[in-house]
Amino acid sequence: MTKPIKYAALSTLSLLLAACGADRGVDSQPATTASRVSASVATQTQAASAYVNLVQSVYVAYFGRPADPGGLAYFSQHLSNLGAPTNIGQLAVAYGGNSALRDVVNVFGTSAESQALYAGDNNVFIEAVYRNLFGRASDTGGKAFWVQALDEGRMTRANAAIQIMAAAQTTDRDIINNKVAVAAGFTTALNTPQRELAYSGLDANVIVRNLLGTVNLSTDLGAFQANVESTLNTMVSQLGAQGMYAGKLTASGRLFNSLVLEDGQYWGFYGSATPGALAPVAFVHGKGTSVSGSFTTGELKDFGPNPAVQGTLTASYAPMSSLNGTISIAASTLPFTGAGIAESIYRYNAPASIAEIQGSQRMDGPMGHHIMRVNADGTFSATTAMCSYTGKFSPRATGKNVFDVVWSFGAGTCALQGQSATGIAFSYAPYDGGTRSLIVAATNAARTAGALAATPQDGLVTTDITVGTGAEVVPGGAVTVHYTGWLYSETAANKRGTQFDSSAGRTPFSVTVGAGRVIQGWDRGLLGMKAGGKRTLVIPAALGYGASGTAGIPPNATLIFDVEVVTVK
Fold it and tell me: Active-site residue 501, yes or no?
């Protein structure tokens, strides 16, 4: 009988605009970041594409700017799902009798961008709609009518914008058509990650709003596209270093990933190489400045040592394409390289989604292997072999694919025991189609110590067959289990090849989890189970018996176990 003994050491509609109105307006979709890619009209269903001009029209009326690709796709699809009218006049009529349609359209009026532009002043709003649509001031009588309707609550702002647009005639209607055509051309031109990123934030909205404001009745639409291209190229040239870059410390070959945020915060993660992924063991952090392709920070700290060590960073960058430079810490000079990560792996310019990380996260790092429980509201907690902790993930208000983190540590022996920390987290797929990872990093207020936890990219796959209802398996916990082990086989039924061991008919097997007395695949794979639970573990050779193998198990064998937790002490 071969037991698993260790023989050798071996990332709602009401949230749609609110989350990123100060960043990208409507480029937000609840709980779908993993499937969100750079959207365009061509990638939408044929039914949704019928609403593209309608959605652009509402953007032009309400914000005076073109739609971003994500917002255009989202609203087009929602209007299609509702079977809404495809022209503005019929939409204005349908709005009054369809509550679901009102919910979709009213998102414009509750957005952060709307609040930033118009606050509570209905006079300012109506004047803006007239200038957005017609390039002129409102007439006195018309303005008074709309403002009174808004002030008395007989109409929402979104409804007012639609009604004003629907009532346009002759030259006013022609001006709207020109503006919508230019807006459509602008959105189509957002065809690279750099251009999408450049068209984010209120400052970018102002630039493009001013551009669209120059469109009038006599505008040559074909010739005007050159203005669109010129504006976008200028905006891209002014981008900072923000984004995610994957690379190496060139002298050692150690993997090194850089994350630069829109406010200049720099996070660099270094660790060991695993297949297609970074397994971070520590990080550096500081706040820097981007100027004309150069990114520097004089307040970098390395949070691998405890206490953290002061350093500096100097790098050159091409926005979202490359970040190459040198870290200087103490007497060490560490050159590094980095290249922009493919959007199929991680899309920086998209809202972070709690739904992607909700549930039980198997974590690793300086605090050891443990299970982090993430709730639907972003709160999280865990008990590790070193200390317990609680905290909260909050999608970053700028709409980027990063969580802001508050992290509090209880008693124990971890570096931040009894302290609170703040930092960031992000979820990504380490390779196209891979299982998503979560990396969390934070520092205490004095920036003398940091905390790090990450989903290990070790190839271990756990699948719960039955979730138990008893006590939970935690590091150091004594458990008894029944199990059956097979050699993994792609061609065998249920992937179970030759059976090499089973506790069936015997006394349950006893083990202290995390003590290093069984293979790593068990020490890690049993965490988070509860008494009465059943789980399947697929364990790669590196977490099993390695290149040597053992009795009944050949070298470099992947294993599959069915495990049932009988008791937890």
Answer: yes
Strands ordered across the beta sheet of 437-443: 359-363, 370-374, 379-383, 387-395, 403-412, 420-428, 437-443, 450-454
Average pLDDT over residues 441-449: 97
- In the set 63, 500, 523, 560, the catalytic residue is 500
- Calpha distance 386→112 (Å, rounded): 42
Distance of CA 162 to the CA centre of its chain: 33
CA angle 297, 302, 306 (to 5 degrees): 145
Full-model pTM: 0.78
Question: Does the annotation count 545 as an active-site position?
Answer: yes
Catalytic (active site) residue 500: yes
**pLDDT, tens digit, 9 for 90 and up, residues 116-143:** 888 888 999 999 999 999 999 999 999 9
Question: Which residues neighbour 129 within 8 Å (Cβ) at sequence distance 6 or greater?
Answer: 61, 62, 138, 160, 161, 164
Which is the catalytic residue, given 483, 488, 523, 539?
483
Query: Model confidence over 475-503: pLDDT tens digits?
Result: 888 999 999 999 999 999 899 999 999 99
Q: Looking at 545, 553, 560, 562, which residue is catalytic?
A: 545
Sort strands 496-502 and 437-443 into parallel, antiparallel or unpaired.
unpaired
Mean pLDDT across 439-467: 93
Task: Write down the pLDDT at residue 192.
Answer: 92
Q: For residues 411 and 419, is the Cβ–Cβ distance under 8 A?
A: no
Domain ranges of the chain: 15-237, 243-340, 461-568
- pLDDT of 201 reads 83
Q: Which of 345, 519, 539, 553 is catalytic?
A: 519
Q: Is-contact 563 504, C-beta < 8 A?
A: no
Distance (Å, rounded) from C-alpha 413 to C-alpha 415? Answer: 7
Q: Is the pLDDT of residue 459 over 90?
A: no
CA distance 103 to 110: 10
Q: Which of 130, 393, 428, 561 is catalytic?
A: 561
Q: Does domain 461-568 have CATH number 3.40.50.2300?
A: no
In a 13 Å sphere around the CA of 421, the CA atoms on its Cβ side amount to 25
pLDDT given for residue 120 in this prediction: 83
What does the alpha-carbon distance between residue 71 and residue 306 come to, in Å, rounded to a whole number?
A: 45
**Greatest alpha-carbon span in the chain:** 91
With beta carbons less than 8 A apart as the criterion, state whether 519 and 453 touch: no
Q: Is the pLDDT of residue 33 over 50?
A: no
Instruction: Name, in order, each residue with C-beta under 8 angstroms of 158's C-beta and a sequence gap of 6 or more.
Output: 58, 62, 105, 106, 107, 108, 109
Catalytic residue, chosen from 501, 523, 553, 560, is: 501
